[in-house]
Amino acid sequence: MRAEQRLSFTRWTAGSAAVLLAATAAAACGGREEEGGTTASGECKGQQTTGITDKTLKLGGIYPLSGPASAYGDIPKGIKAYFDYVNAEQNGIGGRKVEFVVRDDGYQPPKAVEEARRLVEQEQVFALFQTLGTPSTTATWDYTNQRKVPQVFVATGASKWGTDTKHPWTIGWQPNYVSEARVYAQYLKTERPDAKVAVLYQNDDFGKDLLGGFKRAIEGSKISIAQEQSYEVTDPSVEPQMRNLAGSKADVFLNITTPKFGSQALAADAKITNWNPLHILNNVAASITVLRPVGFKNVQNVISANYYKDPIDPQWKDDAEMKLYTAKMKQYAPSADPSVPYHAFGWAVASSFHKTLQAAKCPTREGLRDSMRNLNNVQVPMLLPGVTMTTGNGDGFPIESMQMMRFKGERWELFGEVIDTRKVFGPLTG
């Protein structure tokens, strides 16, 4: 995939009253130039319309298409397939032809800042739809909020996207890392109440957030941390860290990594035959593309948690959304493998954006900001049954439910019930 990729989306008109109102509002609001951008008139007077007209919508995404986290470059393929389908077969969204400009930051925060500025100032995008990675999003959110540009459904589960009150234009999408850690801790309290845990974590805000959440979640229990090892994204391998952790004799291994290092840690765990801990792999590295290179026989009984449907899970074979996704991926992204979960992630988050913009009272930056922070039990068909999007006053986390899964044979198997972490653990606050 090239560093910059323009994804053309055709027009969007759905048959719902909400969409018709949005289209009407676009025409009523009009627009005028102000400080290099445009603002609305009419009932949306004064709100920003840079990057959106009654016929066009321009979005920007920032992904690591190269570098140590390039596995995530599959996500925009799923997004593109979803919108290509909507454009061709549903006449687009709200009558607007959408251009999606994808930029590559190589998982480097300074590069992410450069690309964010380019998208906002040169490309004049309406919103940033996804910036991937906690370090990259942390580096850009001051800028996007100062410019009052929506930074919608960032592809990172850092808890600060939902607890911070100084950056209202930025919001996450996936369950936050602290809540994910709570799910793992709850599982261990039931299944391994005396567990001694060895932890490998990425030495940045991502790794520290999940590890910190896990430590808080096991407070007051008999579960203990036997040893911690961190790694840098520039490290060639985590095998030295894994050998150190093996010396701890811990009976549980918590693997807090991104895909490249997730594969390395899984392979090292299999190679160290005198250490056989329960292996917990965090969600962001739980793709089949991470496990397959290690050899399925070497990753049996690894556990993780998820919130959207796995394309290779046979229980979804007759699911209407999965059948649609599989067919449209083959039609609109024929070179992409529909079984790759990152493609399904992209499909799901694109559908989530569709619904969020559809619900906006005004087709403006302010309208999108308000809509993404006022989601009311929104159903997204690619999410697991029982998982919906909800935000509101004091709650900036769209998705807060997960279900445990275990790797068996050649795929993940869900087990237990969907856990609504809001209800089980209480709200997460800053």
Could you describe the 3D structure shown?
With 430 residues, the chain is α/β, with parallel strands linked by helices. 36% of the residues lie in helices and 19% in strands. It contains 14 helices and 16 strands. The chain has helices spanning 17-29, 75-89, 109-122, 134-146, 160-163, 177-191, 205-217, 239-246, 259-271, 288-291, 320-332, 341-358, 365-372, 421-425; strands at residues 5-9, 32-34, 37-39, 56-63, 97-104, 127-131, 151-154, 170-172, 196-202, 224-231, 252-256, 278-281, 303-306, 401-408, 411-414, 419-420. The strands form four sheets. It has a six-stranded mixed β-sheet with strand order 1-5-4-6-7-8, sandwiched between helices. The chain has a four-stranded parallel β-sheet with strand order 10-9-11-12, with helices on both faces. α2 (75-89) crosses α11 (320-332) and α3 (109-122) packs parallel to α4 (134-146). The longest helix has 18 residues, at 341-358. It is globular and about 70 Å long.
Topology of this protein?
Layout: E1 5-9, H1 17-29, E2 32-34, E3 37-39, E4 56-63, H2 75-89, E5 97-104, H3 109-122, E6 127-131, H4 134-146, E7 151-154, H5 160-163, E8 170-172, H6 177-191, E9 196-202, H7 205-217, E10 224-231, H8 239-246, E11 252-256, H9 259-271, E12 278-281, H10 288-291, E13 303-306, H11 320-332, H12 341-358, H13 365-372, E14 401-408, E15 411-414, E16 419-420, H14 421-425
Parallel strand pairs: 4-5, 4-6, 6-7, 7-8, 9-10, 9-11, 11-12
Antiparallel strand pairs: 1-5, 2-3, 13-14, 14-15, 14-16
Helix pairs in contact: 2-11, 2-12, 3-4, 6-7, 8-9
